[in-house]
Design goal:
With 399 residues, the protein is of the alpha/beta class. The chain has helices at 33-42, 56-59, 62-73, 88-100, 112-126, 132-137, 199-218, 224-246, 251-271, 275-286, 292-307, 312-318, 333-346, 362-371, 373-378, 388-397, and strands at 22-25, 47-51, 75-79, 105-110, 148-152, 164-166, 176-178, 186-189. The protein is built from 16 helices and eight strands. α7 packs antiparallel against α8 (224-246). The chain binds fe (ii) ion.
Length: 399
Amino acid sequence: MSHWEKKIDINKVFVLQTPRPITYFGVGAIAKIDSILAEMALKGIKNILVVTDSIAYKASGAWNSVEPALNKNVKWKHYDKVRPNPTYTNCEDAAAMGLDFKADAILAIGGGSAMDTAKTAAVLIKHPGKKAVEFYEKGEPITGAVPLILINTSHGTGSECGYGAVAQSDGEDKPAIFSPHIFSTYTIEDPALTATMPTTQTISTSMDAVNHALEAATTITTTPYCIELSKEAIRLVITYLPTAIVEPSNLTARYWLMYASAIAGISFYQGMLHITHVMEHAMSAINTKVTHGDGLGILMPAIVQEIYPAVPEVIADLFSPAIPGLKGEPSETDFVVEKLRAWCHSVGQSTSMAGYYSEADIPALVKLTMASSLSKVLLPLAPIKVNEAVVERIFKNSL
Ligand SMILES: [Fe+2]
């Protein structure tokens, strides 16, 4: 029996199975796009808005299969201006193109930015006249969205498995929306589409998956299902990331990294997230050179320093493939943090934000973290009480 099993509150009732997309997973899954579009056309979907950035849809190889399938089955228009950390304007521009075209479904190809833009546009198309800010910041209820097809070309976001989206506000905030209406109808996860990812992105997206897993397994809303999914996700990243770094086109490594990302995504959409994602959003909002996964990887050891004493049984189990022999006791905290830093460095992940920030930036980072929309939703889910002093200490310990 894992140590954490004894600490599970058996009187806590949770939703084991939330609604799910139909997800085609495996090398060659991209070929499913033709039958998906044929089936949607049979159901009356005629006009599809394609949402991508300017690079990944082609660089991944997805377009070689998607373009002929679109031409064969439906009419389509292409919005290709998604930027990293998509803005409200990005989402509204995509939706405007969709409304003009009378799009009755959206197909996104890319990573989290393309998928989240598509999800937001799918909501906006169903609520003509409304702006993104109304859903992201003013509590406007989401009462529908046009159907979504998501083709994932990275292995980190988990967005393809979930019912949330994130966008950059008109200021420095990165709020999120959550609604069952933005679950995709179909998702395609084809590891071959990730084989051209650059090494830095391979590392940072894998760090995103690891942190989804770590946070979801240690929230106060976690479940046995989350912990098991998270444990397997982290084991797979520890096992296969080193191979993907030295041999980017190794499809076995890419398969397991994509699978790790997917199950970490399922875990976080059930257990939710806590401190790391809130603090990282402040980092990348202030300095857009910080990629999401890199920021998370930098913060992770200092976060574990804070939370390990509260949830040692779970974290010891999660990281046992990299740090064997842990007993799951609070006294191991410093040892675990040291080993975790060593593991990060072994896969090329920095654990210092000195490349982006100095000590003088910490007050602004703390302020933005505490003032962000996500802090109100996610910080109360952390396994410890999180106040300004905790956040400041984590940033300082990450310098
Ligand atoms: Fe993330």
